[in-house]
Each structure stands twice: as C-alpha cells, then as structure tokens.
Design a protein that fits this description.
259 residues; alpha/beta; Metallo-beta-lactamase, Chain A; 4-stranded mixed sheet; 7 helices; 25% helix; globular
Length: 259
C-alpha cells in the first residue's frame, strides 16, 4: 500500500489497529504520522487507564510525548472507556463531535436502537452499559476539523447515524478509511469468521443517516481499505454493494409503510 507524500508534503499515516478482545470484536486505532492520533480509547479496562493502547504505542516505537490528540468517534463505552486515563497519561487534548458532548459528560443518556435480533439480545447483556469515567472534551469537531495540525495527514468527517455525532476518518494519501461503527464485519461481529462480510452493528440511531453518510464517504474515491471497530477490515466494493442493498431495502420499507 503506497504512502506517497501529498501536495502538502505529509505522508499518509500508518493505521495500526489495537485489539481489545481476543477475537476481532473490539478495536481502536493509532494513526502514526509525524505525531500520533489515538482514535478511540477502547472498552474500559480494569483501571480505565488504556493499558492496551499504551502497549500498542510502545510496540510502534512511540511514546506518550508523541500523542497529539485523542479523537473519540462517538460516545459508546467501548470507544471512550479509557479516555480520561489516557488523557491524564499523555496530556493530549480529547476531541469529539459536539453532538456527543452531553453523553460523555454524563448529563444525557444515549439511546440504543437495535438493528435486529442480535442488538435486542445484546441489550440483555452488561456490555452496552459499561461504566466509564465521564469527561468534558477539550476540542469540539466542526466541519473544518483537520488532523494535519496534529501532525497526521487525515481528514475527519462528521457522519451521524450510528449516534448523533459519529465520526469517520479518511487518509487521502493511502485511501484508508476508519468508519468506526457505521458498519461492522463478519459473523459474530468479526469474532467468528468472514471478517470482511459487511453487516450492521447491534445499534444504530438512524439507519437512513448511516446510508447517506456511507454514500458520501464512498464518493471520496480511491478508497483501498475500510477499517471498522468490530470485525473487518472491509473491501470498499463490498461496502458499496451493501449500501445499494440497504438503500433499496429502506426505500421499499418507506413505500410499504402505512400512512
């Protein structure tokens, strides 16, 4: 996978997955460029300190001093579980979409709308309700938020859909996309088999918004790999086919809906 410098001279970052479970079911990411951006802090560990993120950073030959930003793609506990501990450790600011601020601050509760039977069953487990240390973000992501000022050649895209302020990240130099929870991949959300099979995660707030966001991201062009936080990675062509099917199914449901 080529990592040629772009017009601004910055090379595409190396996208490093951090596995938070023995299977492929829960991941966060490091973006390694001139500096390091942590994308999600993972499910809360025993001390909520982000030890797996720290070990992954050290394995890449980088240190806390290299971290310029902690970016939370959304406010589910498996994505922000160790944010406070990591911020205390490295001193980097935390950024999130403003629509998620009240959820991570603990002043509002995020709804969980199941996407199917798996989601309804998942709601009966403790996992969706894991506790994490609430926090106030240091930075709010707007439409012009650019990771180049943090030493990483990547763009942040505001998507919504999965949650009100879900984010995705695009690395234009390599064509890699971190779609977080817009999609998932594989049987058992990646943990059992067929990791590259596109599926929906257990929850979405608004499926129609997810589909529109996916279309916008696919229109960026030149995508090589779509990384997700549960299962995957995904082939952009497979995601394109999934979006077409999902869009047709949604249109059919709207036509047949009673007035």
């Amino acid at each position: 996978m080529g990592r040629e410098p772009t017009l601004d001279g910055m090379q595409a970052p190396l996208v490093v997955p951090i596995h938070h479970s023995p299977l492929n079911t829960a991941k966060s990411y490091l973006l390694l460029g001139e500096r390091v951006v942590i994308v999600d802090s993972g499910p809360p560990d025993a001390e909520r300190r982000g030890h797996k993120v720290r070990r992954a950073l050290a394995a890449c030959g980088r240190s806390a001093d290299d971290v310029s930003l902690i970016l939370a793609t959304h406010s589910h506990p498996d994505h922000v579980g160790n944010t406070v501990g990591l911020r205390d450790w490295c001193g980097a600011p935390v950024a999130i979409d403003p629509k998620e601020s009240a959820f991570v601050a603990g002043t509002d509760r995020l709804s969980r709308t199941p996407t199917g039977l798996a989601g309804r069953l998942f709601l009966r487990t403790p996992l969706p309700y894991e506790e994490f240390d609430h926090f106030t973000p240091d930075l709010l992501v707007d439409d012009a938020f650019d990771l180049r000022r943090f030493g990483v050649n990547a763009d942040v895209h505001r998507c919504g859909g999965h949650t009100p302020g879900s984010l995705a990240l695009h690395c234009p130099g390599s064509g890699e996309l971190i779609a977080a929870d817009l999609f998932a991949g594989g049987v058992g959300i990646g943990g059992l088999a067929f990791h590259g099979r596109v599926i929906e995660p257990p929850f979405h707030e608004d499926r129609a918004t997810v589909i529109r966001a996916a279309e916008r991201l696919l229109a960026l062009g030149g995508l090589t790999t779509i990384h997700v936080c549960h299962g995957g990675p995904l082939d952009p062509e497979n995601v394109t086919r999934w979006v077409r099917r999902a869009k047709a199914a949604l249109a059919g449901a709207q036509v047949s809906a009673p007035w």
